[in-house]
Amino acid sequence: MFSPDETIELNIAIIGGGSAGMALATKLNGSPATVFEPSTAAERDCSWALWANESQLKKLSTSVQGSWDQWRIIDHNHEVVHQSDHYCYTALSAEKYLNHCETNLKAPINLVRASVENLVAKSGGGQFEAGGQHYRAKTIYDSRPPKLEDNSLCQHFIGWEIILAEPIENADIATLMDFRVDQSRGLHFIYVLPYSDRHLLVESTMISTHIEDKDWYRSAISGWLAERNMQVQSKVREEFGVISMATVAPHNSEINHIGAAGGAVRLSSGYAFSTIQTQMSALAASITVGSPHLPKAFSKRLIFMDKVFNRALKAQPDQGVSFFMATARALDADQFSHFMLGNAGVIEWLKVIYAIPKRPFIKAALKQCFSHD
Ligand SMILES: Cc1cc2nc3c(=O)[nH]c(=O)nc-3n(C[C@H](O)[C@H](O)[C@H](O)COP(=O)(O)OP(=O)(O)OC[C@H]3O[C@@H](n4cnc5c(N)ncnc54)[C@H](O)[C@@H]3O)c2cc1C
């Protein structure tokens, strides 16, 4: 235990200054808080994407890397192109977003560039060490990434930000899923964000229970580029990610967890950014009025439906392409955006349920009803 005279007393400690920690810190209005984050924004750069409406686009404008009102999903037989008047598929630079948040933090919010260690949590708060200093906080919000469960379904990927030797056509369409790649090891697709006609993010993404060797994703990207005669002039950066598509277990049940650690990643898609923004706005508002309340990231119904989807995908990965293609074909652009954002209404759900293959989902739904998960 730490002796009190060596301990810095805090009102709110936010562990981790990533997407959730920074969103909460920047939305707090006058409540004293300290964010603990060991890495710089540049060290954590990657692409964070969401479906943004006009007002979100304006708010996030300093971090936007690219924005498309058209997106597509392709397999060997079909190409579904969506065009929206209300949403843009928007890619943010995590580095720019985090830098913007950090430079706009104002007292009484502080940032400590250090890792939190030896946390002893109790009744929502606790004691810990960071940067050789002892702290005690009345309330802790912990966003340290959750541990991945063995053999659980994950979305795993490598992305290359590249400059091409020659410009491409159709640089105004984002390719969310191009399934015309090796499907032998799980559901696999190429994701392409054209920031310009020569500047692209190209990712090889797998949804499966087994993380591949990094060279496997790299050769999938190279193969996809080569088939289209796209020559890489230079590689700007590479990103690697693993996103759990299973329910995460909190590090410590004595404190609140936010972000991915708090279950804010949509289980069927891996998207989290948009949900985190909404959830952190609500949390910050409740802290400001003195009655902190962490709202649920998703409704019970949505979590159930996503678990059914993942169960069906895990049982029949070879059907994955038809699940996604059927969903994209059943919905128009705005409905698809609502669906991906987790805001789909009854009509949108009915359209999806009508379109997808029934047997695997009925089986998965029955199993989900009788499971303890
Ligand atoms: C490469 C990648 C790309 C993604 N792309 C998308 C996307 O396009 N759209 C989308 O919606 N979601 C995306 N996701 C999902 C993603 O998990 C979330 O969008 C988002 O980053 C989750 O926010 P978070 O705050 O929970 O986690 P993070 O943003 O990862 O923040 C957690 C922070 O905790 C810090 N930390 C770790 N250990 C300690 C410690 N001991 N003490 C203090 N701090 C610590 C880390 O440095 C990190 O900054 C992506 C995830 C990855 C990994």
Run of helices and strands:
EHEEHEEEEHEEEEEEEEHEEHHHHHH
Largest sheet: 7 strands, mixed
As for the CATH topology of the largest domain, it is FAD/NAD(P)-binding domain
Helix content range of the residues, please? Answer: 25-40%
Give the structural class.
alpha/beta
- Helical segment tally? 10
- Taken from the alpha-carbon principal axes, the silhouette is globular
Describe the structure.
The chain is of the alpha/beta class. Helices cover 30% and strands 31% of the residues. The protein has ten helices and 17 strands. The strands form three sheets. Strands 1, 2, 8, 9, 10, 11 and 17 form a seven-stranded mixed β-sheet that branches. A hairpin with a 4-residue loop joins strand 14 (187-194) and strand 15. The mean pLDDT is 94.
Please describe the topology of this protein:
Layout: E1 7-15, H1 19-27, E2 33-36, E3 47-52, H2 54-59, E4 64-68, E5 70-74, E6 79-83, E7 88-93, H3 94-103, E8 109-112, E9 116-122, E10 125-130, E11 133-142, E12 154-164, E13 173-178, E14 187-194, E15 199-208, H4 214-227, E16 232-244, E17 256-257, H5 273-288, H6 300-315, H7 320-330, H8 333-341, H9 346-355, H10 358-369
Parallel strand pairs: 1-2, 1-11, 2-8, 5-13, 11-17
Antiparallel strand pairs: 3-7, 4-7, 5-6, 9-10, 10-11, 12-15, 12-16, 13-14, 14-15
